[in-house]
Structure to design on (149 residues):
C-alpha cells in the first residue's frame, strides 16, 4: 500500500528492495509529496523506502493528522488481454475506507475509467505500468498476453 500523499514520478530500478514486484505499486518509485504544506517536496531515500512506497507512514513528519486514508492498495481484478481492470482500496486504520475499479484499454493505451483524485490516478498508472512490464516479460514467446478470468 502506498502513501495516499505520494506522487510517483519514475521507477527506481535498483533501490535495494528484496522483492520489488511485491511493493504496492509493483516496484519502487521516486516521486514527491503532496501532503498539505509539503507539496512538491522530495522525500529522502529513507522516507521513500519506509513511508512513501509502503503507506501507513505514521513515522513521517509530513503526514497530516486529518486524512481520508492511510494507504492505497491496487490489484488486477481482471486481465482480458486488451482490457485490464484494476481494483483500488483506500485504507484507514487498517480497514477499507473507499474502493472502486479502474479500467484501461491496452491497445489504445488509454483509461476508460479513471480515479477523480489525480494522485490516486498517478499511482494507478504506475501500478499498471509495472504490471504490464511483468506481463510482457512473463508471456510465452508465441503470445503477447495470458488473459486471466
Amino acid at each position: 500500500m502506498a502513501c495516499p500523499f505520494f506522487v510517483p514520478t519514475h521507477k527506481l530500478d535498483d533501490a535495494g528492495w528484496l522483492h520489488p514486484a511485491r511493493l504496492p505499486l509493483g516496484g519502487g518509485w521516486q516521486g514527491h509529496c503532496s501532503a498539505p504544506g509539503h507539496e512538491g517536496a522530495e522525500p529522502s531515500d529513507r522516507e521513500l523506502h519506509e513511508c512513501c512506497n509502503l503507506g501507513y507512514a505514521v513515522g513521517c513528519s509530513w503526514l497530516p493528522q486529518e486524512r481520508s486514508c492511510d494507504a492505497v492498495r491496487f490489484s488486477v481484478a481482471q486481465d482480458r488481454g486488451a482490457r485490464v481492470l484494476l481494483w483500488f482500496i483506500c485504507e484507514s486504520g487498517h480497514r477499507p475506507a473507499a474502493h472502486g475499479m479502474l479500467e484501461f484499454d491496452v491497445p489504445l493505451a488509454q483509461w476508460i475509467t479513471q480515479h477523480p483524485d489525480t494522485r490516486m490516478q498517478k499511482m494507478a498508472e504506475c501500478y499498471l505500468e509495472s504490471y504490464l512490464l511483468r506481463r510482457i516479460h512473463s508471456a510465452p514467446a508465441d503470445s503477447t498476453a495470458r488473459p486471466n478470468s
Remarks:
- Residues 6-138 form one domain.
- The longest strand covers residues 95-105.
